[in-house]
């Protein structure tokens, strides 16, 4: 059975949603990144970058959430759009992979964790907001981001848009982007998304954001400069 190495953060959640959409049987392998379990030799043998998620598909190891989405969707032959939409799908998937995701993650870091740099906080808040506006404009004339029907791009973007109230510290953050807000409500109500939200229930993931967590998530900040 396919194994999903999982923590209930945006990138692993993407994969959980896709597996639920596909009806693919899978087993959750919890990896508590707040406790530093991603740095264990066993996990680094799967992903030398020590990041989640990872899947083990009967011996085929795939890491990076967007690589996993492409791998699973191609294997299933679903949620990739039509052949004439492949360029759009790849372009928007990379927009999430290299833009929305990283800038949202940095915004969360500098707005919620290390708030001592006004420059960094302003830069990443504005860049995260700009990515939201790009998506809002895109969705002002269409139902889904990349293709005529629901695709892995919508799944990938959903995982980060879901965290925007936390990142910006405002429950109404999507009010400024009404087309994006409409799209999010549509994706968020899908049964597969509802099911994916429940898979972490009963797993004893650490919740405290203390020094152990900081050292686990950002070990490079605690090692001497090279």
From TrEMBL:
Stored Gene3D superfamilies: 1.20.1050.10, Glutaredoxin
InterPro entries (alphabetical): Glutathione-S-Trfase_C-like, Glutathione-S-Trfase_C_sf, Glutathione_S-Trfase, Glutathione_S-Trfase_N, GST_C, Thioredoxin-like_sf
Pfam families assigned to the protein according to its UniProt record, in alphabetical order: GST_C, GST_N_2
GST N-terminal domain: residues covered: 1-80
Keyword hit for Signal: no
Keyword Transferase carried by entry: yes
GO molecular function: transferase activity
Keywords: Transferase
Residues annotated as domain GST C-terminal: 82-225
Record-linked PANTHER family: DISULFIDE-BOND OXIDOREDUCTASE YFCG, GLUTATHIONE S-TRANSFERASE-RELATED
Protein name: Glutathione S-transferase
Lineage, highest ranks first: Bacteria, Pseudomonadati, Pseudomonadota, Alphaproteobacteria, Sphingomonadales
């Amino acid at each position: 059975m396919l194994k999903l190495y999982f923590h209930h953060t945006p990138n692993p959640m993407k994969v959980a949603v896709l597996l639920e959409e596909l009806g693919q049987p899978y087993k959750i392998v919890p990896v508590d990144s707040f406790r530093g379990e991603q740095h264990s030799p066993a996990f680094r043998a799967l992903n030398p970058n020590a990041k989640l998620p990872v899947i083990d598909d009967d011996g085929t190891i795939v890491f990076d959430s967007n690589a996993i989405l492409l791998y699973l969707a191609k294997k299933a032959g679903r949620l990739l759009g039509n052949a004439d939409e492949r360029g759009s799908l790849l372009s928007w998937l990379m927009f999430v992979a290299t833009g929305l995701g990283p800038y949202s993650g940095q915004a969360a870091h500098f707005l919620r964790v290390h708030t001592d740099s006004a420059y960094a906080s302003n830069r990443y808040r504005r860049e995260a907001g700009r990515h939201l506006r790009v998506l809002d404009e895109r969705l002002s004339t269409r139902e889904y981001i990349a293709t005529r029907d629901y695709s892995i791009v919508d799944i990938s973007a959903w995982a980060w848009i879901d965290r925007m109230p936390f990142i910006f510290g405002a429950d109404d953050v999507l009010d400024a982007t009404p087309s994006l807000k409409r799209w999010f409500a549509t994706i968020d109500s899908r049964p597969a998304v509802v099911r994916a939200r429940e898979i972490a229930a009963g797993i004893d993931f650490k919740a405290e954001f203390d020094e152990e967590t900081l050292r686990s998530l950002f070990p490079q900040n605690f090692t001497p400069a090279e």
